[in-house]
Amino acid sequence: MPIVKYPRATEPLWHEWDKKAQKCGLRHTVYAVNGDYYTGEWLDNLKHGKGIQVWKHARAIYSGDWKFGKRDGYGSYSILDPVTKEYKKVYAGWWKNDAKCGYGVTFYPGVERYEGEWSSGQRSGWGRMYYQDGSVYEGQWLEDRPGGQGMLRLPNENRYEGGWKNGKKHGPGKFFYLDKGQLFEGTWAADIPKCGILIDFGRAEAPAPPQYPIPKV
């Protein structure tokens, strides 16, 4: 009995078109209907490698590394300044799974900025924060607030060194009143000193030392 050979089924044309449309490796620019667009590298139709994403309505730009469609690696995020009409960098550092993660620097409105570690988009780990009034906090962070051990230096050079919880002084700590030449060492709870001792600390060199004897109340 003769063997009948049937022709092999050909692959549908749409499969071939889909393969040709796949963006992989090369740099492409793709526009969205809302005006957003991305220029960069792709893998399996996902942003992957180096690329720049522009959000039209948010007036923001991300330039850096991508991994399977999400910001991952090193990159910077900038927004349009309404006054200068130029893009101003607000974050430069590491990302993971589309959120700030690792070491990075964030620039806030005015002169405030944070330099340090991030986790899941929040300040977490070691970091230094420069505030608008001239104060500087340096130490540990947890869930976007000072938490752990840290130092807060005020504009007049007075400073607190000790424990923090939920952004407030908490636990054993020391407060140096350099303007008065005194040191308070004790325990805090939610920013309030609960108990401790106050001693002279360089009172002779202080610009405004307290007067003794202390007058009666």
Automatic annotation (TrEMBL):
Pfam families: MORN. Transmembrane segments: none annotated. It is found in: Cytoplasmic vesicle, Secretory vesicle, Acrosome. Keywords: Cytoplasmic vesicle, Repeat. GO terms for cellular component: acrosomal vesicle. InterPro entries: MORN (IPR003409), MORN3 (IPR052472). SUPFAM superfamilies: Histone H3 K4-specific methyltransferase SET7/9 N-terminal domain. Its main location: cytoplasm. It comes from the Eukaryota. SMART domains: MORN. PANTHER family: MORN REPEAT-CONTAINING PROTEIN 3. Assembles a suppression complex (suppresome) by tethering SIRT1 and MDM2 to regulate composite modifications of p53/TP53. Confers both deacetylation-mediated functional inactivation, by SIRT1, and ubiquitination-dependent degradation, by MDM2, of p53/TP53, promoting a proliferative and cell survival behaviors. May play a role in the regulation of spermatogenesis. This is MORN repeat-containing protein 3.
